[in-house]
C-alpha cells in the first residue's frame, strides 16, 4: 500500500472504518493488519492482553492508518456491545464489523460443565449476536458483517467437539438470516470457516497435528494470513455481491 499526494493511505479500503473483535492475537491480529494494509482504520477488542493489543495497534498505525484497542471481555454481557459503540465514536462510524472473538471448550458431553456451556454460548453466540445488533446503529449502508466460525460446524471428525461445534453451527443460521435483514441496506453478511490454522490456539506443532492433517487435501496447516486475505476480499469491492455465504478455508479438510 502506498500513499497519495496528501500522505494518506491508498488501498481498496481507504477511508473505511473496521472493528475486529478478539484482534490482539492469532487470526484476529492478522485480520487487523491486513485491513490496515488495505487502507482501513482499524479498531480491535481484547480481553486480558493489553500489551499484545497495544502491539497490534502500533503495527497497524505504522501503516499510516488510525488504530485503537478497546477492552471487551466477551464473557461479560454488554461488553462487546459497548466496545462497538466506543470504537465507532473514536474512529467516526463503522463500515466493517469482523466478529472474530471466540473460545474453545473440548470434552465429552457427559463431562461438560454448566460453566463451560455458559462461556461458549456467551462468547461464541451471544456476543456475536448482540455485538452485531449494536453495530447496526452505526454501520453505514453498503457495509460488511464478517463472522469467523469453524469448519467443525460442518464436519465433526473426533469426540469431544460437540459443544464447540454446536456453537459454530449457530453462526451459519445467524449469517443467513442476517443477510436477509441487511440486504435492503446493501450490507453484506458472510461467514468464514477456518480449518486447522497455525495459531497459539491450535499450533501446527501440537500433538494432534498429524491427526488433523490426515483429512487435509493440501497436507499442511493454514495460516492466519490465509484467513485474513479472505476477509479483506469480502470487505472490499470484490465482496459487494457476496452475502449469506459460508466460505470454508480449510485446505480441503471438509472435502
UniProtKB/TrEMBL annotation:
Protein name: 3-oxoacyl-ACP reductase
Xref: InterPro entries: KR_dom, NAD(P)-bd_dom_sf, Sc_DH/Rdtase_CS, SDR_fam
Domain Ketoreductase: 16-197
One Pfam match: adh_short_C2
Family (UniProt): Belongs to the short-chain dehydrogenases/reductases (SDR) family.
Matches recorded under PROSITE patterns: ADH_SHORT
Keyword Endoplasmic reticulum set for record: no
Classification lineage: Bacteria, Bacillati, Actinomycetota, Actinomycetes, Pseudonocardiales
Keywords per UniProt: Oxidoreductase
PANTHER family in UniProt: OXIDOREDUCTASE, SHORT-CHAIN DEHYDROGENASE/REDUCTASE FAMILY (AFU_ORTHOLOGUE AFUA_5G02870) (PTHR43639), SHORT-CHAIN DEHYDROGENASE_REDUCTASE FAMILY PROTEIN (PTHR43639:SF1)
Keyword flag Oxidoreductase: yes
The species this protein was found in: Actinokineospora globicatena
GO MF term set: oxidoreductase activity
Encoding gene, per UniProt annotation: fabG
Amino acid at each position: 500500500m502506498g500513499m497519495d499526494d496528501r500522505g494518506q493511505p491508498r488501498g481498496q479500503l481507504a477511508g473505511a472504518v473496521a472493528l475486529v473483535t478478539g484482534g490482539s492475537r492469532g487470526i484476529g491480529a492478522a485480520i487487523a493488519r491486513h485491513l490496515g494494509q488495505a487502507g482501513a482504520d482499524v479498531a480491535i477488542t481484547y480481553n486480558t492482553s493489553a500489551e499484545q493489543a497495544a502491539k497490534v495497534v502500533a503495527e497497524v498505525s505504522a501503516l499510516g492508518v488510525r488504530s485503537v484497542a478497546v477492552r471487551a471481555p466477551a464473557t461479560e454481557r454488554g461488553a462487546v456491545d459497548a466496545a462497538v459503540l466506543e470504537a465507532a465514536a473514536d474512529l467516526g462510524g463503522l463500515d466493517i464489523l469482523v466478529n472474530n472473538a471466540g473460545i474453545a471448550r473440548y470434552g465429552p458431553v457427559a463431562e461438560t460443565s454448566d460453566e463451560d456451556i455458559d462461556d461458549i454460548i456467551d462468547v461464541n453466540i451471544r456476543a456475536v449476536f448482540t455485538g452485531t445488533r449494536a453495530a447496526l446503529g452505526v454501520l453505514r449502508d453498503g457495509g460488511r458483517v464478517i463472522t469467523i466460525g469453524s469448519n467443525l460446524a460442518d464436519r465433526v471428525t473426533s469426540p469431544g467437539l460437540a459443544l464447540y461445534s454446536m456453537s459454530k453451527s449457530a453462526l451459519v443460521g445467524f449469517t443467513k438470516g442476517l443477510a436477509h435483514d441487511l440486504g435492503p441496506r446493501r450490507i453484506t453478511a458472510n461467514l468464514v470457516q477456518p480449518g486447522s490454522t497455525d495459531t497459539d490456539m491450535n499450533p501446527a506443532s501440537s500433538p494432534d497435528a498429524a491427526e488433523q492433517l490426515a483429512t487435509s487435501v493440501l497436507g499442511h496447516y493454514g495460516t492466519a494470513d490465509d484467513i485474513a486475505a479472505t476477509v479483506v476480499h469480502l470487505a472490499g469491492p470484490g465482496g459487494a455481491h457476496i452475502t449469506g455465504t459460508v466460505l470454508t478455508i480449510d485446505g480441503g479438510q471438509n472435502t
